[in-house]
Design goal:
With 542 residues, the protein is mainly alpha-helical. A two-stranded antiparallel sheet has the order 1-2. It has two domains: 412 residues, Na+/H+ antiporter like fold; 113 residues, no CATH class. The longest helix is centred in the middle third of the chain and has 36 residues. Helix 2 packs parallel to helix 12, helix 13 crosses helix 16 and helix 18 runs antiparallel to helix 20. It is globular.
Length: 542
């Protein structure tokens, strides 16, 4: 009962720290990480050991699906070289740098353990960076790059992590079988993610109850992860592919009255899991501190600080090096002829921000907690206490040092939103309203259909004025929300809006960021119309 009471209290504290972090402009994981570290120092707090097999499934699968579901394939493809470089190149450089530093400081540490430590701390967590960036409204492309990197660097880092852990426990690893294994795992994970997405999409239209839909979504996420792991594939890559494939069709299959509450539940769940991850690491650190003396603690701290510096420097070296290479490749010819235009090259200011957005988070913590503790199932992971201590130190250090300085850095660089998403939102509003107006035919003598059509005409004039840059059009009354109208006409109009929005995303006219904003507006409009109009059938049932 003590553990439960502490967790409830810390969840409330986490909510308070999150509210405080938003007021002062720092990532909420930084505040929660400090609370988790403080927990390890509080006398009388119990120790708690989490089942290693549960750690990655519980903390990574839902958080990763939530991020992948909102990602934009169009924007990721436009920035694929930058994202791939960060997700593979920066991760491998970090693994090598950390492994070398750890092995030099602890000569007795096997290389497999050092590589596993490097893989643990290699993948940054975009949630911490974007929590600050979205408040500051930088160029949308920076958010796309960081969020895209976070989807795929987890997969690359944890593939290396699994191989290194297996080698550390077995004592050896056959390099000849690694590359074919990676190819099989990658292809198999992609295929499995697509197939499982199709299965879920067959069930989705048959579920109209919000509670059942949310349960199916969460259980489906864990089932996808566990099935991939049972088949010895990559749970992370499978979940990413599953989420992205599902997102392309779910908007057309899930009704608004199910989507709105389910999104709210997911947001809550991701927040709780992030807070719990830091709390559980605090419990783990409590057990570690009880087993070591002050001299060993100083030694652990020195090693962890060196690894943290290596982690930060490796990312900076990769990002600045890649950006410099892009600028060199695009240099003008000696005769003054313009060089090739690198459409994915980062400007020097953008490179500084991307290099500094290397905060580590939930994936690092969950993978560290997943290291074998030893027992009936097999031996304990060598140097487990040192690796776990170092992983948490890197998470805490990057969140505090980088996370809390990110806002002044961006303000100093004066990186501003380029307005690309807002323009796409305005375009989508105009196009969807035109579709609704076309679907709303005024019936002679039918006052309600005429009022509904007038409503869309007024809204379209306002949207066109905003798109043209003239601000808001007349705020005359007549938005259609204060009178009753024919339910079938209203349903036909909202359906036309939604289909047009889906078409705009499908042909690449708008990205997912704009799509999600307008989709939310249509969802609220649809619920509003259902309340005002008499309806029948499952869509209108409450």
């Amino acid at each position: 009962m003590d553990v439960f009471e502490i967790i409830i209290a810390l969840l409330l504290a986490g909510a308070g720290l999150t509210a405080l972090s938003r007021r002062i402009g720092t990532p909420y994981p930084a505040m929660v990480a400090l609370a988790g570290a403080g927990l390890a120092l509080v006398p009388g707090t119990p120790t708690l050991v989490l089942d290693p097999e549960l750690a990655l499934t519980l903390f990574v699968a839902p958080v990763l699906l939530d991020a992948a579901f909102d990602s934009s394939p169009r924007d990721l493809w436009a920035n694929w070289r930058t994202v791939t470089g960060l997700a593979i190149g920066a991760v491998l450089l970090t693994i090598v740098a950390v492994a070398v530093v750890a092995h030099l400081l602890v000569p007795g540490m096997p290389w497999a353990v050092a590589v596993a430590l490097g893989a643990l701390v290699a993948p940054p967590d975009a949630a911490a960076a974007t929590a600050v960036l979205k408040q500051l409204r930088p160029p949308h492309r920076l958010l796309v790059i960081l969020e895209g990197e976070s989807l795929f660097n987890d997969a690359s880092a944890l593939l290396v992590y699994r191989l290194a852990v297996g080698a550390a426990l077995a004592g050896s690893l056959s390099l000849a079988g690694v590359i074919p294994l990676l190819l099989v795992v990658t292809v198999g994970s992609v295929v499995l993610g697509v197939v499982l997405s199709r299965v879920l999409l067959l069930l989705t239209p048959r579920i109209h109850d919000v509670a059942i839909a949310v349960v199916v979504q969460f259980c489906g996420t864990f089932a996808v992860w566990m099935l991939a792991e049972r088949l010895h594939l990559s749970g992370i890559l499978t979940v990413v592919v599953f989420a992205m494939a599902t997102a392309r069709r779910a908007a057309d299959l899930v009704p608004a009255r199910v989507r709105i509450p389910s999104y709210a539940v997911w947001e809550f769940a991701v927040f709780v899991l992030n807070v719990l991850a830091f709390i559980l690491v605090g419990f783990q650190l409590k057990a570690i501190l009880s087993r070591i003396d002050s001299h060993t603690l100083i030694e652990y701290t020195g090693i962890a600080a060196a690894v943290c510096v290596a982690t930060i420097v490796a990312r900076i070296a990769w990002v600045w090096g890649a950006a410099a290479f892009s600028r060199w490749r695009c240099r003008p010819a000696p005769d003054g002829t313009a060089g090739p235009r690198d459409t994915v090259a980062l400007s020097s200011r953008a490179a500084v921000v991307v290099a500094w957005c290397g905060m580590r988070g939930t994936v690092t913590l969950a993978a560290a907690l997943a290291l074998p503790t030893g027992g009936a199932d097999g031996p304990a992971f060598p140097y487990r206490d040192l690796v776990l201590f170092t992983a948490f130190f890197v998470v805490l250090g990057t969140l505090v040092v980088q996370g809390m300085t990110l806002r002044p850095l961006i303000n100093g660089l004066q990186l501003k939103d380029d307005g690309s998403v807002e323009r796409e939102v305005q375009l989508a509003r105009v196009e969807t309203l035109r579709a609704a107006l076309s679907a709303t035919v005024e019936v002679p003598g039918d006052e309600m259909s005429g009022l509904l059509r007038r409503r869309y005409e007024v809204m379209l004039r306002r949207a066109e004025a905003e798109l043209a840059g003239h601000g808001h059009a007349s705020q005359e009354a007549g938005d259609g929300r204060t009178f009753n109208f024919d339910a079938e006409v209203a349903r036909r109009a909202t359906s036309a809006e939604r289909q047009r929005l889906l078409a705009l995303r499908a042909d690449g006219t708008i990205g997912d960021a704009a799509f999600q904003r307008v989709e939310q507006e249509l969802d609220l409009e649809e619920l509003d119309l259902q309340q005002l109009a008499p309806s029948s059938g499952p869509e209108g049932a409450s």
